C-alpha cells in the first residue's frame, strides 16, 4: 500500500489546500508546534482548512525537551493545541539534530538512553490521552540515538531522501524535501504511507473521532534546574539528600535507568528548589581555574560552563565567578 502525502509547517506560508487535494494528495502531516506549547503560526488555519475539505491530517511536534519530564509536558502542549480538530493520522514526535543542539545549550548531553526516554515519555503520554503515537527519525538518529525496540513499540515516520526505499521497517516514509505541490509555494516535504492509518485509528477508536475530547490531568509546570557535576565517590541517593530531593526524581529527570550506575564527571540536572544558594568567588592573584575547582570540589569544565569561560587559562584577578 502506498498512500500519497506531504508534510508542512509555517515555512510553507499560506496554502491553497483545495489545490493540494485536487492534485491527488491523500493526507497531510501538519506541524502543530514545538517545545513548551509554542504553536506553529499556520497550524490552526492548516488544520481547519484540511478538516473543511475532508483531507485527512496527522500532526507532528518538534522536540526541545531536556528531560523525560519535559518531553511529557511537550505532549500535553501538543494535545492542547490539536484537540479541537479531527485527526485521522498519527500524532508524531519529531526528534533530530536541533534537539541535540538545544539540549547541549542547556547543559544536557543527549545520549541514546536519554533520547529514547524522551520518545517514550512523549509517546506514552499521547497514548494515555487517547491518540495514536508515532515518532520521526532518520538513519543517523536511529543508529546513534534510538534504542532498537522503539520501532517495534511505536510507529516510525522515517526520513530517507532517495528515489528508492531502503526497506527500513516503518509506517511512513519521507522521501524528499524538494517536492513541488500545486497550491504551495517553494519546496515541500513529500511522504508515502505504507499503512492506512485512517482505517487503523478509526477501528481502534483512537484520536477522539467520536467527537469526545481528551481530559488530561495537566502536567505540572516546568521547574528550574541547576546542573551538578558528579564527583568521585558520589551516589545518586547522596546527591538527592544533599539537594533535598529523592534519587527517584533525579533518575527520572536525567533518564538514568540504573540509579547505582553513575560516573564521575557526568553532568546531571537537579531541581533548583532544593538546591543550595549559589556561591561566588573573587579571583585572587595567582589563582588558576583548576586550583579554584579543586578548592571548591568541582571541575574546570563546570566552572567554564557556569561562567561562560572559553579559555580556562585566561582568568583575571578581581573578577567574580560563580562556583555553584
UniProtKB/TrEMBL annotation:
GO terms for biological process: carbohydrate catabolic process; cell wall macromolecule catabolic process; peptidoglycan catabolic process. InterPro entries: GH, Glyco_hydro_25, LysM, LysM_dom_sf. Gene3D superfamilies: Glycosidases, LysM domain. Residues 226-270, 279-323 form the LysM domain. It comes from the Bacteria. GO terms for molecular function: lysozyme activity. Belongs to the glycosyl hydrolase 25 family. PANTHER family: LYSOZYME (PTHR34135). This is GH25 family lysozyme M1 (1,4-beta-N-acetylmuramidase). It comes from Faecalicatena orotica. The lineage of its organism: Bacteria, Bacillati, Bacillota, Clostridia, Lachnospirales.
Amino acid at each position: 500500500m502506498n498512500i500519497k502525502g506531504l508534510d508542512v509547517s509555517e515555512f510553507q506560508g499560506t496554502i491553497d489546500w483545495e489545490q493540494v487535494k485536487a492534485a491527488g494528495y491523500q493526507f497531510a502531516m501538519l506541524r502543530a508546534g514545538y517545545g513548551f506549547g509554542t504553536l506553529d503560526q499556520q497550524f490552526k488555519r492548516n488544520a481547519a482548512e484540511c478538516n473543511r475539505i475532508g483531507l485527512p491530517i496527522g500532526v507532528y511536534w518538534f522536540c526541545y525537551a531536556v528531560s523525560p519530564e519535559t518531553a511529557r509536558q511537550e505532549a500535553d502542549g501538543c494535545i492542547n493545541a490539536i484537540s479541537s480538530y479531527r485527526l485521522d493520522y498519527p500524532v508524531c514526535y519529531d526528534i533530530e539534530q536541533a534537539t541535540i543542539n538545544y539540549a547541549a545549550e542547556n547543559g544536557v548531553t543527549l545520549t541514546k538512553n536519554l533520547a529514547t526516554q524522551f520518545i517514550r515519555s512523549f509517546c506514552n503520554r499521547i497514548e494515555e490521552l487517547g491518540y495514536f503515537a508515532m515518532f520521526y527519525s532518520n538513519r543517523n538518529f536511529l543508529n546513534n540515538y534510538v534504542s532498537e525496540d522503539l520501532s517495534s513499540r511505536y510507529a516510525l515516520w522515517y526520513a530517507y531522501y532517495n528515489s528508492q526505499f531502503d526497506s527500513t521497517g516503518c509506517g511512513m516514509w519521507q522521501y524528499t524535501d524538494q517536492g513541488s505541490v500545486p497550491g504551495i509555494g517553494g519546496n515541500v516535504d513529500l511522504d508515502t504511507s505504507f499503512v492506512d492509518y485512517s482505517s487503523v485509528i478509526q477501528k481502534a477508536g483512537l484520536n477522539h473521532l467520536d467527537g469526545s475530547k481528551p481530559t488530561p490531568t495537566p502536567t505540572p509546570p516546568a521547574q528550574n534546574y541547576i546542573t551538578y557535576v558528579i564527583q568521585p565517590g558520589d551516589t545518586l541517593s547522596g546527591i538527592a539528600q544533599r539537594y533535598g530531593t529523592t534519587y527517584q526524581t533525579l533518575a527520572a529527570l536525567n533518564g538514568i535507568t540504573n540509579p547505582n550506575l553513575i560516573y564521575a564527571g557526568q553532568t546531571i540536572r537537579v531541581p533548583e528548589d532544593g538546591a543550595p544558594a549559589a556561591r561566588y568567588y573573587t579571583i585572587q592573584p595567582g589563582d588558576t581555574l583548576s586550583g579554584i575547582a579543586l578548592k571548591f570540589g568541582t571541575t574546570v569544565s563546570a566552572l567554564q560552563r557556569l561562567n561562560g569561560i572559553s579559555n580556562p587559562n585566561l582568568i583575571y584577578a578581581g573578577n567574580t565567578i560563580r562556583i555553584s
